[in-house]
Amino acid sequence: MNLPRIGVSLPYIDPYAGPDAVVTIARAAERLGFHAVSASDRLLIPVGPHWDNDAGLPESHAWDSLEMLTWAAAHTQRIRVTTDIVNSIFHPPILLARRLATLDRLSGGRLDVGVGQGGGTRKPPFYIPEEFVAAGVPASRRGMGFIEHIAALRACWTPDPVEFCGKHYRIPPSLVGPKPSRGTIPLFVGAINQHTIERAADIGDGFVTTAIDWEVTRVQVGWYRAAGGTGTVMVNVIPARHELTARAFTDTVLRDLDRAVSVGADEVHIALHLLPSAPEQQVELLEALAAELGPLQ
To answer: Which of 8-22, 115-129, 274-288 has the lowest mean pLDDT?
Structure first.
């Protein structure tokens, strides 16, 4: 099999999240030759009778993705660190740009960034209106506001003096730093429907989706390429939570990798954080998978 690059998610959701858990998974993933570790963005988990978890939301809160990735980078040497996804419009662009550039410089240029606008559909778990309320950002900021946010973010990484003037965001002429180690940071845009995927092809360095249905994923990748998208296609895969034996886990992931190749994915991230198993057990699963795949470096 002509393998895509393979990443694994860090344990950023309780009960297994924490500094030791992050180091355990990050170091194991690097030792075994995986391409990247990742963490996503979830400001809060709503409570109440209308959130009886039919949406597949985690049952506990998520730790901050950038801090988790910074900690992982500090305890590794080679493996890339990836946000998947950071909902960028919840953050002022200059603050997010500086945090991302700082992480990129601290990690030696190992950062890739998946960005989203807080949901490409009005259904959970991709869209949670309570997050917009808590962030103080109107849901109407999505769309053109997201496009402007990305432009402002990238403006902060250009040579000084930085200046940006838009409808929603303004940066007066300023010295803004640090700058990313390679002058910019790859931005992979999360998208679901045809319109947002075509926008990802236009404004992003790549496209991120989650493979809930592989035929849908095939169509999504086709939309991206047809719209002129030439960047990285990154697909998240969710292993079945009941398949915790090494053999079952490996078989499931191998099937997903085969499907990912067939739809044209360049990179696959395995959502380890959704498995109800301790980090040490997750390492055993990764070891079994790596033994089946052969050398990954």
So the answer is: 115-129
Question: Element (H or E) spanning 6, and its range?
Answer: strand 5-9
Q: 75 pLDDT exceeds 90?
A: yes
d(CA 225, CA 211): 17
Q: How far apart are CA 107 and CA 120, in angstroms?
A: 30
Q: Per the structure block, which two tokens stand in for 18?
A: 């924490």
Strand intervals (E) in 117-241: 162-165, 170-174, 187-190, 206-210, 232-237
Q: What contacts 253, CB < 8 A, 6 or more positions away?
A: 237, 239, 270, 289
Please return the burial class of 233, using the count of CB atoms within 10 Å of its CB with bins 0-12, 13-18 and 19+.
buried
Q: Is the pTM of this model over 0.85?
A: yes
pLDDT in tens, 124-170: 556 788 899 999 999 999 999 999 999 999 999 999 999 999 999 99
Extended beta strands in the chain, E state: 5-9, 36-39, 80-87, 111-116, 162-165, 170-174, 187-190, 206-210, 232-237, 267-270
Burial environment of residue 2 by CB neighbours within 10 A (0 to 12, 13 to 18, 19 or more): exposed
**For the segment 23-34, what is each residue's pLDDT rounded down to a tens digit?**
999 999 999 999
Residues 159, 177: Cα–Cα separation, whole Å: 9
> How many Cβ atoms from other residues are within 10 Å of residue 287's Cβ?
14
**8 Å CB contact between 95 and 77:** no
The DSSP bridge partners found for residue 116 are 87
Dig out the tokens for 228 from the structure. 């002129």
